[in-house]
Amino acid sequence: MAVVRVRNHVNPLSKKYQTPANPLNWEKIYAAPTQPLHLDIGCGKGRFLLNIATLEPNWNFLGLEIREPLVEEANTWQNQLGLTNLHYLFCNVNNSLNSLLSSLPVGTLQRVTIQFPDPWFKTRHAKRRLVQPQLVAELASYLSIGGVVFIQSDIEALAVEMCDRFNSNAAFQRQGKEWLTENPLPVPTERETSTLSRGEPVYRALFVRC
């Protein structure tokens, strides 16, 4: 089998990624479409969602990823395991979120995770970063009252910027003023495990839709 090379960095502003994704038919994706939905933005290889979807069958899980080969492989795993509460989708979330969630059953989006997004270190590339004010506003529109957004990164400056974006939106309230010492979810990401194994810090924060 040929090995498909997957780029680590994909520019979301390039022409290739400017077509928004189509609205989803939730009844075709999930066996129980009105279950609470966990949205993982930038799901990478999808193994975090694969593990947590197995542990929490009473939740639905949707992973969004801009690198299409990773999505295709993740959906292959999902199909092989027969998980009817899990789906992965290729898209550029910064221009697709409204379209994707426009048909979402009201009140079902209850949890969002944004974990270790690409930092785009150069100042001139900051506009390529995932967490922009528009994304925060769109999440506020669809996330249920009391729903949560969990963010984490191994780059402190990026974690601070993401927190600033959510703090700037009155719909969200940060839980505590310091970084979380523990992950509130039952499953870590591969990047999280690798970072902690090297003795390096992970910067985590939790926001509630108020």
- What is the percent of helical residues? 25-40%
Q: Strand share of the residues?
A: 15-25%
> Termini separation (Å)?
49 Å
- Tally of contiguous helical segments: 7
Name the helix and strand elements from N-terminus to C-terminus, one letter apiece.
HEHEHEHEHEHEHE
- Overall mean pLDDT: 90
> What is the count of distinct domains?
1
Main structural class: alpha/beta
**Level-1 CATH class name:** Alpha Beta
Number of strands: 7
From the alpha-carbon coordinates, what is the Rg to the nearest angstrom? 16 Å
Structure, described:
The radius of gyration is 16 Å and the shape is globular. Strand 4 (109-115), helix 5 and strand 5 (148-153) form a beta-alpha-beta unit. The longest helix has 14 residues, at 68-81. It has one domain (32-209): 3-Layer(aba) Sandwich (Rossmann fold). The chain has helices at residues 26-29, 47-55, 68-81, 93-101, 133-142, 156-167, 190-197, and strands spanning 37-41, 60-65, 86-90, 109-115, 148-153, 172-174, 203-209. The model has no long low-confidence stretch (mean pLDDT 90). The protein has 210 residues and is α/β, with parallel strands linked by helices. It has a seven-stranded mixed beta sheet with strand order 3-2-1-4-5-7-6, with helices on both faces. It is 31% helix and 19% strand. The N and C termini lie far apart (49 Å). Helix 4 packs parallel to helix 5. The chain has seven helices and seven strands, in the order H-E-H-E-H-E-H-E-H-E-H-E-H-E.
